[in-house]
UniProtKB/TrEMBL annotation:
This is Primosomal protein N. It comes from the Bacteria. InterPro entries: P-loop_NTPase (IPR027417), PriA_3primeBD (IPR041222), PriA_3primeBD_sf (IPR042115), PriA_C (IPR041236). Residues 6-99 form the Primosomal protein N' 3' DNA-binding domain. Residues 579-649 form the Primosomal protein N C-terminal domain. It holds the Pfam family PriA_3primeBD. Keywords: ATP-binding, DNA-binding, Nucleotide-binding. GO terms for biological process: DNA recombination; DNA replication initiation; double-strand break repair. GO terms for molecular function: 3'-5' DNA helicase activity; ATP binding; DNA binding.
Length: 667
């Protein structure tokens, strides 16, 4: 009787698959092995997760064992946990830890290289190789040795090869502790990082550092190389080419590093025995949210990682997010040091009067700008929306352009002469006459960063000015600012290296922020404002433009975070909203609208039978394709019911001829 194993594949399928182990691979295949299998004529990489299975007619055999180390049981437990939390197939979670292999990696990863009989020549060419040798693929990439040269070195006795011994120790680990630190200023963060790394290295631990964007990754890598020139540093982010990612993976595996620095991709770094410290910077930043479902909450992923792998997690932020505060109240996260006071200063509100409501900058703000410019200072005007106007429409009939997929107003970008959807980025060139009534009286509603910047240039023509928004930042704005100057931009301007130099900070429109429909919009505004107030110099002036009603609410954003978040959590508790429950949208798309609603109605019955509250099904608010028929369910359930929700997914999905996804609301 053949030996059967269960293999998890990187497919949107909530099950494992049975494969037979051929005789020549009996001693190489066991739980934890990475294998290559035939799945309906397609060659896929999979992972053996357990022994056993039923011998069925036509059962296929494993084709090959790939030269990856067997993953430890802790990694399997961690992957199963993420699979439950985010309703993700186990194979897709496991695939996050392993880089794809090219031909050269497949050929050479299975060998280790050692010094040959001619040790002196080996040391002369390559230095002293480790006593345990070096993986051959890693050796060839590090020393840029060609295949022909390798054959010559082996023939001359300079090097010798042995089969790679793929074994990973998996001793029990004590769950790591989690701390949060309030450190808003860049120089203080660097000092904190320097001290904590030195302490970790003295204890024999290696470090994993996560940052929200590539620019900060580069900045911190430069800082570490400057202060620790002899350290072994690995940069691990989306810029790595496939071969470079394999090299980084194997260096981490062999412990050939002191610190790994990267973006959200680093949260899925393969665990190694010496990795004992993790530092997560600013977990509330959007750079940590994946572009595709299930949109992992990296803060939660790193906490689970600390629990399963025994890594001590330090969360560094200007001030804690709502989730960190909630975890602190639960006793899951501890404050790492003295908690500084909230950012308070003399903040002045400015109310629009009369015709000035149609202008971007009110008279008191203009006078303050003139005063700062005369003192050779820097002015920063913070605008909520990109583009020139929130909407473009006809003044004669009231028509305005909307996105055909999302149903919201298209944002007018005057620089590009385009209408752009802020959600799906659909683009449209506006017509010269109204498509509804033929009118020619066009009007813009709302003020974006382009319009505010246009008014700044018109009002202060002799003063250097700069517009900064996501589009400009992508073109390479590096934050080089000379005083005096006026900066107009979105949240891309709120940088740790810029705010300490600002003399006047202006919130362009408080009403724009308070009118956002998302339940987490106020928490995001609070975090950004408090970050600004803590980073601005003590003598900086802060002006907030808005209506009387919005300015009456503004003192709430000056409260200490413990009071502000307590009110926000109470609201979320009453609405049964995260972080008290898990909230997920089940979106199904198909050309057969009736079939979509029939499937989701069946899913609703299964959820409700398990005591899970469900809203819907109803038409999806954000269909991705204009011609597709799309519908969704919204389910909410406490964390202890994640297994019940997963069981429904196993029973319902996948669906033949339908596209489906799970989109989690994280805050």
């Amino acid at each position: 009787m053949r030996r059967i194993v269960q293999v998890a594949l990187p497919l949107p399928l909530f099950r494992t698959f049975s494969y037979a182990v051929p005789l020549d691979l009996q001693d190489k295949v066991f739980p934890g092995s990475t294998v290559e299998v035939d799945f309906h004529g397609q060659i896929l990489t999979g992972w053996v997760v357990e022994e056993g299975g039923e011998e069925l007619p036509g059962l296929k055999e494993i084709r090959e064992v790939l030269p990856f180390p067997p993953f430890p049981s802790t990694l399997l437990g961690f992957s199963r946990r993420l699979s439950l939390l985010y309703l993700s197939p186990l194979g897709e979670v496991l695939a996050s830890f392993f880089p794809p292999l090219g031909k050269s990696a497949r050929k050479y990863l299975g060998f280790r290289v050692f010094a040959g009989e001619n040790v002196q020549e080996c040391c002369k060419r390559f230095g002293v190789l480790p006593p345990r040798g070096m993986n051959l693929f890693l050796f060839l990439e590090r020393f840029r040795v060609s295949t022909k040269d390798l054959e010559r070195f082996l023939k001359d006795g300079i090097l010798r090869l042995e089969r790679e011994f793929l074994k990973i120790g998996d001793s029990p680990r004590t769950p790591g502790e989690c701390f949060f630190w309030e450190i808003p200023r860049l120089e203080e963060r660097k000092a904190f990082l320097r001290d904590i790394l030195v302490k970790a290295w003295e204890e024999g631990k290696k470090a994993l550092l996560l940052l929200p964007d590539l620019q900060k990754v580069d900045a911190f890598c430069a800082f570490l190389r400057e202060h620790f020139p002899s350290m072994s540093l690995i940069r691990y982010d989306s810029r790595l080419r496939p071969k470079e990612r394999v090299v980084a993976f194997w260096r981490i595996l062999e412990g050939d590093f002191d610190a790994v620095v990267g973006t959200r991709l680093s949260a899925f770094v393969f665990p190694c025995q010496g990795l004992g410290l993790s530092v997560l910077f600013d977990p509330e930043e959007k750079g940590y949210v994946a572009d595709r479902a299930p949109h992992y909450d990296i803060g939660e992923v790193m906490e689970e990682r600390a629990h399963h792998f025994g890594e001590c997690l330090h969360i560094v932020c200007a001030l804690p997010s709502l989730r960190v505060y909630f975890r602190w109240r639960e006793g899951k996260v501890k404050p790492g040091g003295v908690i500084p006071s909230s950012g308070t200063r003399n903040v002045q509100g400015v109310v629009a009067r009369g015709l000035w409501r149609n202008f971007a900058l009110f008279p008191p703000v203009r006078r303050a700008i003139v005063s700062v410019v005369e003192r050779k200072g820097i002015v920063l005007i913070w605008v909520q929306k990109t583009g020139y106007a929130t909407a473009l429409g006809c003044r004669e009939c009231g028509f305005y352009y909307t996105c055909p997929s999302c149903g919201i107003a298209l944002r007018y970008h005057k620089d590009l002469a385009l209408l752009v959807c802020p959600l799906c980025h659909f683009r449209l060139i506006p017509e010269s006459t109204c498509p509804s009534c033929g009118g020619i009286q066009w009007g813009e509603w709302g003020q974006g960063v382009e319009r505010v910047f246009e008014e700044v240039q018109r009002t202060f023509p002799g003063v250097p000015s700069e517009r900064v928004d996501p589009e400009i930042e992508e073109e390479g704005w590096m934050g080089k600012v000379a005083a005096p100057s006026i900066l107009v931009g979105t949240s891309a301007l709120l940088r740790e290296d810029l705010l300490p130099r600002v003399s006047l900070f202006v919130v362009h429109s408080l009403d724009e922020w308070l009118s956002l429909p998302e339940i987490g919009a106020w928490e995001q505004l609070y975090i950004r404002l408090q970050k600004v107030l803590r980073l601005l110099p003590p003598d900086a002036q802060v002006l907030v433009q808005g209506s009387r009603e919005s300015l009456r609410r503004f003192p709430e954003f000056l409260k200490p975070w413990s009071l502000f978040y307590a009110d926000a959590l109470e609201k979320r508790r009453s609405l049964r909203y995260p972080p008290f429950v898990r909230l997920v949208r089940f979106v199904v798309r198909s050309r057969n609208k009736e079939a979509v609603f029939r499937v989701l109605s069946h899913a609703k019955e299964l959820f409700e039978a398990r005591g899970i509250q469900v809203l819907g099904p109803f038409p999806s608010v954000r269909p991705r394709r204009e011609r597709a028929k799309s519908a969704e369910l919204v389910a909410r359930y406490p964390e202890e019911d994640v297994a019940e929700a997963f069981d429904v997914c196993v029973e319902i999905f996948p669906l033949s001829g339908m596209q489906w996804s799970f989109e989690f609301v994280l805050s």
